């Protein structure tokens, strides 16, 4: 048998000068000091970030509305000029004997009076006070009390929790009362998201640890990536807590923080730990292994973090705080995950040394089963798959492309809308209230179009209201004299309500608000010619304005992502073709996700199995978030693979051999990383909130498609077709890369014979045996097990 190549240490070479070598020396020489500082900073992050959940916004309508739009302006005017005009609290009172019964009527008036006496409550109106039929159900057994909880979103929710819930719901004499309205929907949504996030973490952490123990075979090595993930999550919570002092941050940011904190930190830690153990297996000492690891895997981590951060940063071009706050969270967690992986993890590796292989779990299993350890080729299966694909490149590329396009076809029928109470589970009180109002009361209480006018005379308002009432799809035009009740008159209809020079009218639609007919109605209202300024607001108007804002920002966001990806991958590879391939293949990896989102969540397929109510549309901002997130994560794995292929090409100077070796050496780590991240996303996808479920399950599908299909089938097939031209660049760009580009360096091992030209189809048997032998001593359980 040929001698085991890895038993002989590689020739000593001076590590390359630069940032990563200096970082390796620093973390090796000051490891314990860095770890103590990390513990201190982590304790501070825990204290600072402990109250972040209470300061996040629940993602109500304001989160997905352009603050500079017409609908936002009209809503601000209503809030300022008519504080009680936009009720956000509804009490649904049911009386078995009917709401007009004397006892029920008396108790209903008392209920409304008690509510009006509460601090932070204004604009209280009830059926029993006004007699408005719009506040009485068709069967006469239910009636409404509506009001406005004052203050911003957090203050309104605090009032709801402290003064309303538990005091005004349940049995109230002969009445059975439920609490609803937009503030109740938002509060219940935030509560469920917080509870679901804890459950997701409880599901994801143990499964992640099991996967890592299987991958590494060592309990100690498996705990390291998990620890880096926890550092990233706790640190990001502290960053978000600080950001809430300056800007609005959506509660959905906590879901993104958990997913990326665990997923990316574990990805980066997997790559670094795997490479470190590999270098130990090649006979290097700890300082040398650490220097090589940071100059190769560490450099890849830095590039990966840059690509993911840029993809998430693209959401900053949108004015919607929902997307902007998720960009803040995403960028923070990416930066912290990369810093922890490049500073804290090497310090831990330096302290542990070869004890990283302590608690060999697979060794315990072998001893209990009395089965000998079976020598296996490290990544031999991935190498065989790569060779098979490259021999059939045209067929594999065509077939894979056709399947991906077929899976993405449903997205062509996407219908964008806005989230509503149906995001909540069917048992949620606020959803039950809204459903009762929709089914049992006149008109469409959630779809009213609010029209704010300025400097209009009573006669002009009367003529304008008459014009609006004749529009297709209008049920009636209300203009309350006192308090406004979710699109219904609290008293006799009037031509307008005036506060100084400002007036408002309410257009009650007879069509579904979030529908093509509802959107057409808003456009018709806006198209009515007036001699005075008029501004429309309401759910549908806000949705139209949000879609317009996203439409304006989308080309800029895509441009930023594509340009940054092209530049970063060029700096990494020095090729013109590889960056273009990376962008196109990453975009293809998202087709299955986008198609599944429409097929499942819009069309309702599998809704019973997954436990949600389909609405026939997709929240406008959510595909943007999913695209930016999934594209960044796909580039994460793409950088892993391209970095190793480039490193091997520079070493063996053969294109196909480099592709095979790149896939062989990264196939295991990319698969393990994708499994871990998909587990986290699926755990988040168990949420009872539909949009969170869509985010988690959709991104999990994109991750698995990228790792299992794009990286294993499409990438090697395309690289085989492009051949040596893959690495071509014109002279000026080649010289630019030589001056400013990044080179994977630090590993000076001699090239195995199996990587020689032509080895992709007929590897040398002796060299193959060397590769498939277990590494000597430490390397046997360490360097290759992660593949």
UniProtKB/TrEMBL annotation:
Major subcellular location class: membrane
Family annotation (SUPFAM superfamilies): Multidrug efflux transporter AcrB transmembrane domain
Top-rank lineage group of the source organism: Bacteria
InterPro entries hit by this protein: MMPL_dom, Mycobact_MmpL, SSD
Topology term for the membrane: Multi-pass membrane protein
Annotated region described as Disordered, given as residue ranges: 742-787
Record field: compositional bias (Low complexity): 749-766, 775-787
Keywords: Cell membrane, Membrane, Transmembrane, Transmembrane helix
Spans through the membrane: 33-53, 207-240, 252-273, 301-322, 328-352, 393-412, 556-578, 583-601, 621-642, 663-685, 697-719
Record domain SSD: where: 219-351
Location relative to the cell: Cell membrane
Name this protein carries in UniProt: MMPL family transporter
């Amino acid at each position: 048998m040929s001698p085991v190549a890895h038993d002989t240490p590689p020739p000593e070479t001076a590590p390359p000068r630069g940032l990563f070598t200096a970082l390796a020396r620093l973390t090796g020489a000051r490891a314990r000091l860095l770890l103590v500082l990390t513990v201190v900073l982590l304790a501070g992050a825990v204290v600072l970030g402990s109250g972040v959940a209470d300061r996040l916004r629940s993602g109500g309508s304001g989160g997905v509305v352009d603050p500079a739009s017409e609908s936002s302006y009209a809503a601000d005017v209503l809030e300022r000029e008519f504080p009680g005009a936009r009720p956000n609290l509804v009490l649904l009172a049911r009386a078995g004997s009917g709401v007009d019964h004397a006892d029920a009527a008396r108790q209903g008036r008392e209920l409304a009076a008690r509510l009006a006496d509460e601090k932070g409550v204004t604009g209280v109106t009830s059926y029993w006070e006004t007699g408005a039929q719009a506040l009485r159900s068709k069967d006469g057994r239910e009636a409404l009390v509506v009001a406005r909880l004052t203050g911003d979103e957090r203050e309104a929710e605090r009032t709801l929790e402290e003064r309303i819930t538990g005091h005004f719901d349940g049995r109230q004499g002969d009445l059975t009362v439920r609490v609803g309205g937009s503030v109740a929907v938002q509060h219940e949504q935030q509560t469920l998201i917080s509870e679901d996030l804890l459950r997701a973490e409880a599901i994801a952490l143990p499964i992640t640890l099991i996967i890592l123990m299987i991958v590494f075979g060592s309990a100690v090595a498996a705990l390291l990536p998990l620890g880096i993930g926890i550092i990233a999550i706790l640190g990001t919570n502290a960053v978000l807590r600080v950001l809430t002092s300056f800007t609005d941050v959506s509660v959905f940011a906590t879901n993104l923080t958990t997913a990326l904190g665990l997923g990316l930190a574990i990805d980066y830690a997997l790559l670094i730990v795997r490479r470190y153990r590999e270098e130990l297996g090649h006979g290097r000492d700890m300082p040398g292994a650490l220097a090589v690891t940071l100059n190769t895997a560490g450099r890849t981590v830095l590039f990966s973090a840059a690509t993911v951060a840029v993809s998430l940063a693209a959401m900053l071009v949108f004015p919607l705080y929902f997307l902007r706050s998720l960009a803040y969270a995403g960028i923070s967690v990416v930066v912290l995950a990369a810093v922890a992986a490049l500073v804290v993890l090497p310090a831990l590796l330096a302290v542990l040394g070869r004890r990283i292989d302590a608690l060999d779990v697979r060794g315990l299993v072998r001893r209990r089963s009395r089965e000998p350890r079976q020598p296996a080729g490290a990544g031999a299966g991935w190498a065989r798959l790569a060779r098979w694909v490259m021999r059939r490149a045209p067929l594999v590329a065509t077939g894979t492309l056709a399947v991906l396009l077929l899976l993405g076809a449903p997205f062509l029928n996407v219908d964008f809308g806005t989230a509503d109470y149906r995001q909540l589970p069917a048992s949620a009180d606020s959803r039950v209230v809204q459903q009762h109002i929709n089914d049992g009361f006149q008109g469409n209480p959630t779809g009213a179009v609010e029209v704010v006018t300025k400097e209009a005379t009573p006669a002009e308002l009367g003529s304008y209201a008459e014009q609006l009432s004749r529009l297709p799809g209008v049920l009636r035009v209300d203009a309350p004299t006192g308090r406004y009740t979710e699109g219904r008159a609290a008293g006799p209809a009037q031509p307008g309500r005036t506060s100084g020079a400002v007036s408002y009218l309410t257009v009650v639609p007879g069509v579904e608000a979030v529908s093509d007919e509802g959107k057409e109605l808003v456009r018709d209202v806006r198209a009515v010619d007036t001699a005075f300024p008029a501004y429309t607001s309401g759910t549908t108007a806000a949705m139209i304005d949000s879609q317009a804002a996203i439409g304006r920002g989308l080309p800029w966001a895509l441009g930023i992502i594509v340009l940054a990806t092209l530049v970063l991958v060029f700096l990494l590879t020095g090729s013109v073709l590889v960056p273009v391939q990376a962008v196109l293949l990453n975009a293809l990896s998202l087709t299955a996700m986008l198609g599944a989102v429409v097929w499942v969540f819009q069309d309702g397929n599998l809704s019973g199995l997954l436990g949600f109510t389909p609405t026939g549309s997709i929240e406008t901002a959510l595909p943007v978030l999913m695209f930016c997130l999934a594209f960044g994560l796909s580039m994460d794995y793409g950088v892993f693979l391209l970095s190793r292929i480039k490193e091997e090409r520079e070493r063996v100077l053969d294109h196909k051999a480099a592709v095979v070796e790149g896939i062989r050496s990264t196939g295991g780590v990319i698969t393990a990383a994708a499994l871990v991240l998909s587990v986290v996303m699926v755990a988040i996808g168990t949420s009872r909130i539909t949009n969170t479920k869509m985010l988690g399950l959709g991104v999990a599908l994109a991750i698995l498609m990228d790792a299992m299909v794009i990286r294993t089938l499409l990438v090697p097939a395309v690289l085989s077709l492009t051949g040596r031209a893959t690495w071509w660049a014109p002279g000026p760009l080649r010289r630019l890369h030589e001056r400013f580009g990044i080179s994977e360096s630090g590993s000076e091992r001699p090239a195995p014979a199996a990587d020689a030209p032509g080895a992709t189809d007929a590897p040398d048997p002796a060299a193959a045996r060397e590769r498939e032998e277990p590494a000597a001593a430490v390397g046997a359980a360490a360097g290759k097990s992660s593949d």
